[in-house]
Design the sequence.
């Protein structure tokens, strides 16, 4: 526990360290190893949020909470794009063995990232975000080992940095501002994960004519945004928030549906421009009723 407390800023640790240690002890007393690891991860996440000033009372924390669901959507879509690219390559080149163990590990890690994003959006935020982040770290480490040297640095810089930052931003979302669970039962969560796996497998492995290839992006994008739900969209109350939430999602279309990128960017720009207009109209309407 001492190591975990050192993650906090010194002033915060002096004031609340004993209280945090007592709460951790009570939560993990007679608990199994998974429960202790989960509590330790929660404490580490809280300490990092305190260091970065990402509390729920601060404006930065509130902005991060508004963007977090869309960050996970983008992470899931990019992961599906890369895993699909690798698995379709395996189909063409003679089966999974043709990829080699490291590329197979990369594909599996990206699929785990997709499942983690779906799990978080469905209601298991800590477990889902940690799964997504660990999946990305595994894929990045495997790519770095496979490419080595300058190639590894270039690949991580071009393709690995943004997803990792998005996953980390979702992980750092203040707990009391995280989206409410969409599914409160274990059966519901299992169904979400199962359908995500089935949908991803079908879209990756089923051959599609050229005109329908953008469906590899469009269908999972709609599914993940539906999991995020209306409350996630309701938090996007400014034009910058709309742009910051939408751009990563649209960029994730490049591997699987590049033809969609231009019209989606146009739609995003129009939506962002419309937000302040709608706010002004709503303000005028409320004044008129008063």
Sequence:
């Amino acid at each position: 526990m001492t190591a975990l407390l050192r993650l906090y800023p010194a002033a915060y640790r002096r004031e609340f360290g004993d209280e945090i240690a007592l709460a951790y002890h009570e939560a993990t007393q007679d608990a199994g190893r998974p429960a202790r690891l989960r509590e330790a991860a929660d404490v580490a996440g809280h300490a990092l949020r305190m260091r970065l000033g990402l509390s729920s009372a601060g404006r930065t924390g509130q902005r991060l909470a508004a963007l977090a669901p869309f960050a996970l959507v983008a992470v899931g879509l990019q992961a599906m794009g890369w895993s699909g690219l690798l698995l379709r390559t395996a189909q063409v080149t003679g089966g999974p063995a043709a990829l080699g163990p490291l590329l197979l590990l990369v594909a599996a890690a990206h699929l785990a990232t997709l499942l983690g994003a779906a799990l978080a959006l469905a209601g298991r935020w800590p477990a889902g975000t940690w799964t997504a982040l660990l999946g990305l770290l595994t894929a990045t480490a495997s790519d770095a080992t496979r490419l080595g040297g300058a190639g590894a640095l270039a690949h991580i810089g071009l393709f690995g940095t943004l997803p990792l930052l998005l996953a980390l931003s979702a992980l750092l979302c203040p707990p009391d501002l995280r989206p409410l669970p969409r599914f409160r039962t274990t059966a519901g969560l299992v169904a979400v994960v199962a359908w995500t796996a089935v949908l991803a497998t079908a879209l990756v492995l089923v051959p599609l004519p050229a005109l329908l290839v953008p469906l590899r992006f469009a269908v999972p994008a709609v599914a993940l945004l539906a999991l995020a739900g209306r409350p996630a969209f309701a938090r996007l109350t400014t034009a910058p928030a709309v742009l910051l939430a939408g751009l990563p999602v649209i960029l994730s279309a490049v591997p699987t549906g590049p033809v969609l990128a231009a019209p989606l960017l146009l739609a995003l720009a129009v939506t962002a421009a419309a937000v302040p207009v709608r706010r002004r109209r709503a303000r005028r309407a409320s004044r008129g009723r008063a």
Q: What stands out?
A: Residues 59-93 form the longest helix (35 residues). The two ends are 55 Å apart (CA to CA). The chain has two domains: 1-52, 55-232. Residues 55-232 form one domain.
